[in-house]
Amino acid sequence: MGKITGFLEYERQETSSRPPEERVRDWENFHLPVPESVRREQGGRCMNCGVPYCQSGIQWESSVFGCPLHNLIPEWNDMIYAGNPSHALSRLLKTNNFPEFTGRVCPAPCERACICGIYGDSVTVRDNELCIIEEAFAQKAVKRRRPPQWSGKKVAVVGSGPAGLAAADQLNHRGHSVTVIEREERCGGLLTYGIPNMKLPKDVVQRRIELMCDEGVSFVTGLDTSDRSVAQRLLADYDAVVLCCGAERPRPLGVDMEGVSSGIYYGAEFLKAAVERQQFGKDPMVPTAEGRDVVIIGTGDTASDCVATAIRQGCRFVTQLVRRPEADYLQNGVLPLDYAHEEAIAVFGHDPRRFGVQVKELTAENSVLTALTTTDGDIIPCGLLIAATGFAGCAENVCEAFGVAYDRTVQTQKGGFAASVDKVFAAGDMRRGQSLVVWAIAEGRSVAAEVDAYLNGYTNLVRVV
């Protein structure tokens, strides 16, 4: 513990952001770095608790407290304060394959478990984490790590989201020849297609992909494993197959859509189209929000990202309908604002959220959506309705192609990752259900340990799930 009284002397100072009215004009990262002296103070606020709940990673009822990866948070906070970036980096990478992702998009359950936050403000764990890894990349301290020898075993990882990348990274470092299969044109899964650039720049994702390639991982894009012939070829050619295809089946909207053939999309497809159009120069079928009245159903990160994306695309107005009452979201009597809500207030003058209300029915002209009626009885003009209501399960066609048992998710052995077909494993949202990026990485690390033991008869990898 570098500063015994640091939590008493230093105030929490989060990474600042560009003003909302400025950042909505572009798609660039809107967070601003803080001086090194400030970051060292933030590391010095860590209390080095006797029981550091921040790294416990426990689930209580429906909430998660602490880091699922069991990151060694007090250790690298201490190293930040001590001015020892190389040691901080080594402790961070010991448990987290991709801190540049979690440092940007994780909702930081570690901070909710911080003892310092009981009577004051928690430590800026997420900001500290991101500072360590980005400074390391800037100083070229992140080095290529190739295994000293190869095992001769081949593993196919289906899906290049956070779970698939974590599994591939771990197995590659154990000396197995790993090929990552991706259906889309570019790798990254949710990291590439499901999170807007201002929140997770795509060059950050590509930087990690290129590093993994340099370390020996192979990537194959544009290959759809829901084709049974492709699945059977993978089973024949590889010693193990790991399915990490996410929870891509959306939850039904639950509204009668008869007579409406245009104007309704799910959050994931709206965000994917926005990334393809803005980042990769594509012209997807899903329209932009430009000049439209937009209504977004749901809450959480996906809904917020849809709000922010619609504003940047030039929507005429945006409304977010939240099913649960406002009281359910209050923290110490205050309704917290996400980055997207700050932007909506700056552009339109008020919070876009309406609580305790749902869609009752839709109105269309010539099959094109024009308005909707809420359960409160009022009519909202709507030219684009986006359902960010979560996911109902994994990709059934991939499960059927490989012949694995599934219901909402792939059925695996109790407490394990092995599917019902020999040498097939599953991890991430495909096994766990819709969850956080940090849980996906934890699943990827854990399935890698089980696959490594399956291939070698033993493993020195650690399962965290």
The strand line-up of the biggest sheet is 7-6-5-8-19
The unreliable regions are none
Strand content: 15-25%
Mean pLDDT equals 95
Q: Separation of termini?
A: 29 Å
Shape annotation: globular
Structural class: alpha/beta
Cα gyration radius (Å) = 23 Å
* Quaternary state of the chains: single chain
What does it look like?
The protein is an alpha/beta fold and 465 residues long. The protein contains 18 helices and 19 strands. Helix 15 links the parallel strand 12 (317-322) and strand 13 (353-355). The protein is globular and about 65 Å long.
Explain briefly what this protein structure is:
This protein has helices at residues 6-9, 20-23, 36-44, 73-82, 85-93, 99-105, 109-112, 125-138, 162-173, 190-193, 202-215, 228-237, 267-280, 301-312, 339-348, 396-402, 429-432, 437-456, and strands at 16-17, 31-32, 58-60, 63-65, 154-158, 177-182, 218-221, 240-243, 249-250, 264-266, 293-297, 317-322, 353-355, 359-365, 368-374, 379-381, 384-387, 391-393, 424-426. The protein is α/β, with parallel strands linked by helices and 465 residues long.
